[in-house]
């Protein structure tokens, strides 16, 4: 059992930066693959980035070079540093975890989800 709590969302201007945090509890953090997804109104939940247990990072083309996922195993926390934000980044951002060791961009393959945090980027 894993509990995930996101924080750090808010309203920022285009070009600005924001850092999301996801605190995990319930089991050994190092055994989890962590991912960030986002969902805009009327759209499917979209893969953003993921980081494996060993620190390998995978990302969507839409955020390449702008977003950076990282994890602090000592704090059981994963972060999403978002730079050069665009209005199209506006969405609810979800932290997710899976117990497998491999990367997956498919939300169905993630076992645990946070409640989401709203990110709004103004023009």
Plain-language structure description:
- The mean pLDDT is 93.
- The strands form two sheets. Strands 2, 4, 5, 6, 9, 10 and 11 form a seven-stranded mixed β-sheet that branches. This protein has a four-stranded antiparallel β-sheet with strand order 1-3-8-7, with no helix packed on it.
- It has no helices and eleven strands.
- A hairpin with a 4-residue loop joins strand 7 (67-72) and strand 8.
- It has strands at residues 3-7, 10-13, 18-25, 33-39, 46-51, 57-59, 67-72, 77-82, 91-98, 112-113, 117-122.
- The termini are far apart.
- It has 123 residues and is mainly beta.
Q: What general outline do the C-alpha atoms trace? A: globular
Which structural class best describes the helix and strand composition? mainly beta
Number of helices: 0
Task: Report the uncertain regions.
Answer: none
The radius of gyration computed from the alpha-carbon positions, rounded to a whole number of angstroms, is 13 Å
Would you report the number of β strands? Answer: 11
Instruction: Output mean pLDDT.
Output: 93
Largest sheet: 7 strands, mixed
How far is it from the N-terminal to the C-terminal residue, by CA? 40 Å
Helix percentage range: under 10%
Order of SSEs: EEEEEEEEEEE
Question: Which percent range describes the beta-strand content?
Answer: over 45%
């Amino acid at each position: 059992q894993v509990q995930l709590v996101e924080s750090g969302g808010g309203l920022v201007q285009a070009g600005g930066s924001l850092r999301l945090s996801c605190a995990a509890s319930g089991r050994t953090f190092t055994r989890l693959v962590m991912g960030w997804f986002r969902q805009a109104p009327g759209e499917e939940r979209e893969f953003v980035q993921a980081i494996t247990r060993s620190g390998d990072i995978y990302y969507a083309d839409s955020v390449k070079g702008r977003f950076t996922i990282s994890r602090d195993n000592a704090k059981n926390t994963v972060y999403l540093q978002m730079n050069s934000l665009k209005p199209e980044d506006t969405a609810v951002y979800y932290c997710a975890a899976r117990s497998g060791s491999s990367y997956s961009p498919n939300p169905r393959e993630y076992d645990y989800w946070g409640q989401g945090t709203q990110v709004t980027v103004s023009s």
